[in-house]
Amino acid sequence: MRACARTIVSAPIESVWTIVADPERVLSFMSGVTRWEVADDQATGLGARYRMLFRIGSAEVGGLIEVVEWDEPRELAWTSVTGVDQRGRWRLRETSGGGTSVEIRLAYGVAGSGLLGWLAERLAGPRVSSHLRTSVQQLKGLVEQEQLRERAAARRAARTS
Fold this sequence. Notes:
Elements: E1 2-9, H1 13-20, E2 33-38, E3 49-56, E4 59-71, E5 75-80, E6 85-94, E7 100-109, H2 115-160
Antiparallel strand pairs: 1-7, 2-3, 3-4, 4-5, 5-6, 6-7
Helix pairs in contact: 1-2
């Protein structure tokens, strides 16, 4: 199964990347993700590994994932090493107005073949899609709120100078 969500964030691409690429911040905007922990000595970049769990209904599924693409500040992609078969990608692009187009893609499969695997994927699909839509909206709110705070701090600093 595949799911995708998009939004436009009113902030420079570097500001969005700073949050998307920080494993310490994933739980602050990723809907449905209940665990995202650095699994080895490398916290970010190509080859970084994370233990992650994703809530689908009453179940938490996931496993160990590894970053397989890291093109700062535009692309971050991962694939599963153990657990649920999955591939994910954050795709950031600058917009003409100085904002950032944000897209998250997730492809996943349930272990095992046959009717039960197919049925599990179909039942999870709407929930996964909903989580991705919520995630990009929460990311948008988080980044835009930080931009407002930075501008307010700059105004205060300018007044005291």
